[in-house]
Amino acid sequence: MRSCRWFLVLLLAGCAQESESARPALNESIKVDQVGYLPARAKIAIVTDSRASGSFAVRRSADGSEVLTGRLGPPLADPDTGDTVRIADFSVVNQAGSFYLDVAGVGASHEFDVAPDVYAKVFYLAMRAFYGQRCGTAVDLAPTYPGYRHAACHAAGTPNPDALMHASSGASGAVEATRGWHDAGDYGKYVVNSGITTGELLWTYEVFAGHVGSVRLDIPESGGSLPDLLSEVRWNLDWMLKMQDRDGGVWHKLTSERFGGFVMPERDDGGPRYVIGTGSGPYKSSCATGDFAAVMAAAARIFRPFDPDFAAVSLAAAERAWRWLSAHPSVVFKNCCGVQTGEYGDGNCADERLWAAAELFRTTGGAEYNAYFAANHAAARPGLVGGGTPSWQDVGTLALLTYSFSAQPATDEAVRGQLRADTLAAADAIVARTAANPYHVSLRSTDYVWGSNGVAANYGVLLALAYAMQPKPAYLDAAADNLHYLLGRNTFGLSWVTQTGRRPFHNPHHRPSGADANAEPWPGMLSGGPNRYGGDPVIDAMPAIPPARRYKDDQASYASNEIAINWNAPLVFLLASLLADQ
Ligand code: 9MR
Ligand code: ZN
User: Full-prediction pTM beyond 0.85?
Assistant: First the structure.
């Protein structure tokens, strides 16, 4: 009996060894989603090596056994990357497991998983990355990521607490404006960018509560009465509320005058931190005030079942912001008076005001907001019809979408019908474009801007919302295509989420990652991605190359390799759309 068992063990070990050595060498020109694919959804890999003979196999990682053989598609020229690509479609593989592609004449791909919960971990990391960005408190990602920590920053008792009133604000002295999230690789806090970020995270909960409501993020509030996602959002809402002036207007940003060095936030050497104004009356900006009103109105709606008092505070703040905005609809922010930090300047605050009206209407049913939306929504339609994504500059699409999901009895059904038709037509066009793109990404050549990975993620948001309106499988497949692009199915074969996938990028422009002693960057953060227009010395020094290649995994490339909250938020939304019901 005993010897027999030994014999079996040896036999199995022998088999495993044989198939392991039979695995061809890894070849980075086979690009897969390095996290993986959902069993029931489309599955595509991209092959850019011209030696490919035309056949491929999908094999189990454990023993090399073949689960599918297929033929590559024809060579396709991709002007955005300059690559010639061939597609390996293995959508029929719907069993769970760990696999790799074996492409004849080329080699093996990275391993990837197929599983119903394949995105659970990356969702956890991408959402928990907001905790890592918390300002005004100590942060510690242990026990899951020991060593990723910082002491309390920018708070009472630290060298530059938030905050002093800047000369540009028309005021002076100190105010209490702690909490919130650091914006990006820098330690500034900007209301406009917080607006779209917090709005998209609130929507993540509102649309996908069934997927994310009980996900534990291992944050200090875990185990309390709020879903963890909302506790994390609350940290930033608390800061935003402090950015509202007594007259209802909202300050544009809170930063030092210049960016500090690559040090941990508690050692920030950028100098005093200020609440910054426009330099002349009324000092607050209309875009910040509009975004603030929209976010606070949404927060009032979404927090009401958990915390009616906070909902009431949020709604009152939104309404005061709305009134200020009605009196001051177009106060544009520009850096002045010695301020060099991010501007988030935007010459047109009509879309922010429309978003405010739409969220306030959706929350309250108020006739004034409905009337404003009726009279002004047409201006935002071309953005939606043209299939444009929401961005910090343009939140018009968010205004239209929130109205079309309104449950208020006074919702104008004719307008809603038009907006839904517009959304579905835009989604159909994006689906067609994505299928025709050799890399199966929704990005157009002109979309390779600063933060193009955020644009890709926001295509996912748009498509997932279209799917929520009408569950056409192609909408969610195309949404997932954009995720696959971000997680490795791109010309670089890089996963653009830190510590995620077999070959993640390593050198984000992110001060804590650059300053701490950890070998790997902080987990769960999305790189800005290729930027055809440049804006930093690294990208600007590149020779003329196709737009989707203007990227470098280099800490110095803030125009292509920074991380930012407004890029992580649509990533979180997109991931949430692909999580299983709990
Ligand atoms: O995301 C912003 C991008 O659209 C702008 O072109 C760029 C230059 O103004 O600024 C980006 O935002 C940065 C902000 O100004 C400061 N914090 C880091 C942000 C991400 O790079
Ligand atoms: Zn801070």
Answer: yes
